[in-house]
Design a protein that fits this description.
- The complex is a heterodimer of chains A (about 375) and B (about 575).
- Chain A has helices spanning about 40-50, 95-105, 110-125, 140-150, 170-185, 200-205, 220-225, 230-240, 290; strands at about 5-15, 15-25, 30-35, 55-60, 65-70, 80-85, 160, 190-195, 205-210, 215-220, 240-250, 255, 260, 265, 275-280, 300-310, 315-320, 330-335, 345-350, 355-360, 370.
- With about 375 residues, chain A is an alpha+beta fold.
- Chain A has two domains: about 5-225, P-loop containing nucleotide triphosphate hydrolases (Rossmann fold); about 240-370, Nucleic acid-binding proteins (OB fold (Dihydrolipoamide Acetyltransferase, E2P), Beta Barrel), CATH 2.40.50.140.
- In chain A, strands 11, 12, 13, 14, 15, 20 and 21 form a seven-stranded mixed sheet that branches. In chain A, strands 6-7-8-3-9-10 form a six-stranded mixed sheet, sandwiched between helices. Chain A has a four-stranded antiparallel sheet with strand order 2-1-4-5, covered by helices on one side.
- In chain A, helix 2 runs parallel beside helix 4 (about 140-150), helix 3 packs across helix 4 (about 140-150) and helix 4 packs parallel to helix 5.
- With about 575 residues, chain B is mainly α.
- Chain B is built from 24 helices and four strands.
- In chain B, a hairpin with a 4-residue loop joins strand 1 and strand 2 (about 50).
- The longest helix of chain B has about 35 residues, at about 65-95.
- The termini of chain B are far apart.
- The chains are: A alpha+beta (about 375), B mainly alpha (about 575).
- The interface of A and B includes residues 82 and 86 of A.
Chain lengths: ~375, ~575
């Protein structure tokens, strides 16, 4: 197990900046996910950590030893890390056993120990019976298990995963996600996991690193990132939300298009009078207010008209138009709560669920911005 | 950590960069040197010993050059038209109908493709030479006419014979395009009321039109670049084409500078056509060429099957059975002019060809030169393909373009360039085995590169990264991961270059000397001696070698192996 420190890590591809002064510390035994859209620099960071790419500026330090720096980088084969690739990268000319044994043979492990350790690793991913199959005879999920076994059998200091689940179908993805989590809890390897899928990031990570355009946007536990995002980008990338542009009137109220919202959760460095964005998750909009009637101190109570309703099995999704304004809100309610289109409803939004974010400079759009996922 | 790998200090040094530089240098010399001297000589006047346009002036003024260009264009146009007439129907029949014995026809057409064109020309002179040809003699004896009706020694004869050797290009391109046409596209026409004929002419064939045109252009290119067939069939008719004219310029007294200038005129034509052909094949707007194999259902021809079968039988008879039979019959006769029978049967020509020092040396040389050339070409092609695909060096686009250059240069012209480049310091190779090997390597580098490139593209780079990541050095990775994965691709590329080198004539004819005779040049000399029995025996030996290798490769490497060209 090892700790990792990224210091001012910078990388250019041709003349474009792929990674811009990245600073991050990963604790020993921690599972960290790098989350972001394609082109945000997450894979570049991972490949630099693996040693496939050399940084242009900055350095990577593992256990007080510099392993990547512009002039002096340790080659990938000397880093004792294991990586799991998006394509699985299982060698088609070798059997499952030989694929897993590859790293051990390079380390000159004795015959007896080798077969024991390969058997152990295959048992860990439930593939003991398929040891002598060729990769073409395996399903996608099984291939991914082989690549897991191949990665952990060499007892790496650090495990790297590059969007390992993106080529699997939905049900298998969930099962493999749990398997990776179980494996992590058992082996306690320092793990860096790259993904663009927010669910994977939330479910797996000790800490999530949200990246955009080569820069870190926010680092925090899944709860911190989801409930207290620092920017509009983080808020909408990690989950669906209603984003309403307005102005901070006082430390506990925001004005949006003439309507006042009471708020309690304000991001740092916002002063009274600043332009802000109010972030409300759809499930925070409570629609049967007769039942959950809250007082004006802990919730915003509003009247609204149902514009549109979709039944999605696990829940119903409503588009609401707030009274006396042109604001629309998206709300999700349990399936037993039914409202016809055009009916009038009372809604309440707990003030703890109204997160206030700094307005982004460019947002000269309409006051209503609904982020669909 | 207990499993940190320790290695000696030598292993830390990365030798790969040096290997890369060496191979890039070899490639630059191999391709660059002949082209440089070709162009340089074409602008050089021997009389004034300075640069001038005198050679191009001569080429444009003297009528014999203009005549040769006209004849070449006529010959190539005629034979590519014949290729289309033969190739498109066979491709459609074999690919999309319920023709009986389909896989047999595919193998037979593969053999036609592998057959050296000048052997076809030799066989057809035995069949339809004006008076002595067997078909003419049969015609005379049946009708009592004074003379035969066929004449191999004419433009029509040459178009016919060369068309029969170039139609496999049209067949291969058209059938591989037809193989991936989704039947749903045809069904969509049927459901709107089209009958089978309308469906085929309005939907199926237009869909593969780019492939058909590309195949026609390839046939044209092959025909215009041929040296053997036109020299066998047209020199007796006193008709010259570009390639035979270039060869004439090499005869005593040699006019190398003029040959260079005239060669570049030919390159101008071929380069333009190669460009057109490549851009046709690269077009993406015809969805069927994307390679995604769609659902394919065969067309039921009913009674028409037998017509289809008859058509294929005639095409194969003309291009394969008849030529091979006449060569076999001639090789096994005491004297080929007499009727075939027990009293005229003899094995002696085979014995003579194998024991005669010049022909047996030629057979050995062919094997030796072709094997070395195939190995060299594949080695260079593999390293360059790897560098290009992994973008390991700057200028990799240029590097991927260089090995493909010879595809636009006819064999005779490559020989002219190689002659010009290697008869002067620093590399004087003329008269040695090396110049033949260099010539074959240069000529077939595009084939080798296409094969190696396909193999390298098929390996996901992550397969290599995974090995590095688990502790393998770059040398380990190449040895344990890359090489095992591309082995079969490399072997089929090697075999292809080997076969092409064995049957190569147009390049060898300008470069061989007494000691570096190969099978094809030995055959060419026997033609001029008119010793048809010996000639046929050697031809049969060559065909046996080529056909055996093709059939073995087809059996063990799969049917796709000759398609890369």
């Amino acid at each position: 197990m090892s700790s990792i420190v990224f210091e001012n890590l910078t990388k250019y591809f041709q003349s474009s900046l792929a990674l811009d002064r990245l600073n991050l510390e990963v604790k020993s035994g921690e599972l960290i996910t790098l989350l972001g859209p394609s082109g945000c620099g997450k894979t570049t960071t991972l490949r630099m950590l693996a040693g496939f790419i050399t940084p242009d500026e900055g350095k990577i330090i593992v256990d007080d030893r510099i392993i990547s720096a512009p002039k002096n980088s340790l080659p990938p084969e000397k880093r004792n890390m294991s990586m799991i690739f998006q394509s699985y990268a299982i060698w088609p000319h070798l059997t499952v056993f030989e694929n897993v044994a590859f790293g051990l043979r390079l380390r000159k492990v004795g015959k007896k120990e080798l077969s024991d350790r390969v058997a152990q690793a295959l048992a860990l991913v439930h593939l003991e019976k398929l040891a002598h199959r060729y990769p073409s005879e395996l399903s996608g999920g099984q291939q991914q298990r082989v690549s897991l076994a191949r990665a952990v059998v060499v007892e790496p200091q650090i495990l790297l995963l590059d969007e390992p689940l993106s080529n699997l179908d939905a049900s298998l993805r969930e099962a493999m996600r749990n398997e990776i989590l179980t494996l992590h809890k058992r082996l306690k390897l320092t793990t860096v996991y790259v993904t663009h899928d927010r669910i994977e990031a939330l479910a797996l990570a000790d800490r999530v690193v949200v990246m955009k355009a080569g820069k870190i946007q926010q680092v925090g536990t899944p709860e911190e990132i989801y409930e207290h995002p620092n920017t509009e980008f983080v808020a909408s990338f990690i989950g669906r939300c209603n984003l309403l542009s307005g102005k901070l009137i006082s430390r506990n109220s925001v004005e949006v298009n003439g309507m006042l919202f009471r708020v309690a959760d304000i991001a740092k460095e916002i002063g009274v009078g600043d332009g802000v964005v109010l972030c409300i998750r759809p499930h925070a909009v409570i629609m049967n207010s007769a039942h959950y009637l809250m007082d004006g101190e802990t919730a915003n109570s509003l009247g609204a008209r149902v514009e549109h309703c979709e039944y999605l099995g696990e829940f119903r999704e409503y588009t609401l138009k707030l009274d006396k304004s042109n604001l629309s809100l998206c709300a999700i309610a349990p399936p037993h709560i039914r409202h016809q289109p055009n009916s009038l409803v009372d809604i309440s939004i707990p003030i703890a669920s109204c997160r206030v974010l700094p307005a982004e400079v460019k947002s000269a759009k309409s006051p209503y911005v609904m982020q669909k996922v | 950590m207990k499993n940190l790998v320790r290695r000696g200090s030598i292993a830390n040094y990365d030798f790969s960069l040096i290997i890369w530089l060496v191979f890039i240098a070899v490639l630059l010399i191999l391709i660059g040197l002949p082209i440089f001297w070709l162009i340089r000589n074409s602008f050089f006047s021997l009389e004034s010993e300075s640069f001038s346009l005198i050679n191009y002036q001569t080429v444009s003024i003297e009528p014999r050059f203009r005549e040769a260009i006209y004849n070449s264009l006529l010959l190539a146009t005629g034979s590519s038209c014949l290729s289309l007439l033969l190739g498109v129907p066979t491709a459609w029949i074999i690919s999309r109908t319920d023709l009986p014995l389909k896989s047999l026809w595919r193998v037979l057409l593969l053999l036609v493709f592998a057959m050296p064109p000048f052997l076809g020309a030799i066989a057809w002179t035995l069949l339809i030479a004006p008076n002595s040809g067997w078909l003419n003699r049969i015609y005379i004896s049946l009708t009592g006419a004074e003379t035969g009706i066929f004449n191999a020694y004419s433009m029509w004869g040459a178009i016919f014979v060369i068309g029969l050797s170039t139609y496999p290009y049209v067949f291969l391109l058209t059938s591989s395009a037809l193989d991936v046409v989704n039947s749903e596209l045809e069904d969509a026409a049927t459901i709107l009321g089209a009958n089978k004929g309308q469906m085929t002419t309005k939907i199926t064939l237009p869909l593969v039109a780019p492939a058909i045109i590309a195949g026609g252009i390839l046939s044209f290119l092959e025909a215009i670049a041929l040296f053997g067939s036109p020299s066998i069939l047209l020199i007796p008719a006193r008709t010259t084409v570009i390639t035979t004219e270039i060869w004439q310029l090499f005869q005593y007294p040699p006019k190398i500078e003029l040959a260079c200038a005239f060669s570049l005129c030919l390159v101008l034509i071929t380069a333009l056509l190669v460009w057109v052909q490549r851009s046709l094949v690269a077009r993406k707007d015809y969805a069927v060429i994307t390679g995604k194999v769609g659902r394919k259902r065969l067309l039921q021809l009913g009674i028409g099957r037998w017509f289809a079968l008859g058509f294929c039988l005639i095409v194969c008879s003309l291009s394969l059975f008849l030529p091979v039979l006449i060569l076999l019959r001639t090789a096994l006769s005491q004297s080929w002019g007499r009727p075939f029978g027990f009293d005229n049967f003899s094995w002696k020509w085979f014995g003579e060809v194998l024991s005669n020092s010049s022909t047996s040396v030629a057979i050995q040389n062919s094997f030796f030169f072709s094997a070395i050339a195939a190995t060299l070409a594949m080695a260079i092609a593999l390293i360059i393909a790897y560098l290009v695909n992994r973008r390991l060096v700057p200028w990799h686009q240029v590097l991927s373009f260089l090995p493909m250059l010879p595809i636009a240069i006819p064999g005779v012209v490559i020989a002219v360039g190689i002659f010009a480049a290697y008869t002067r310091p620093p590399l004087i190779l003329y008269g040695t085995a090396a110049i033949m090997i260099v010539a074959f390597t240069t000529r077939f580098l595009p084939v080798a590169f296409t094969n190696a490139n396909t193999s390298v593209i098929s390996i996901n780079p992550e397969l290599e990264l995974a090995a590095r990541n688990l502790g393998a050095t770059s040398a380990d990775t190449v040895q344990k991961v890359v090489f095992p994965l591309i082995k079969s691709g490399l072997i089929s590329g090697w075999i292809l270059v080997f076969i092409l080198s064995i049957r190569e004539l147009s390049c060898a004819i300008l470069l061989f000397t007494l000691n570096t005779q190969v099978m094809s040049t030995a055959l060419f000399e026997l033609v001029s001696e008119s010793s048809y029995e010996r000639l046929s025996a050697l031809a049969i030996i060559m065909l046996a070698i080529v056909f055996t290798i093709v059939l073995l490769a087809y059996r063990f490497l799969g049917k796709d192996f000759l398609l890369e060209k």
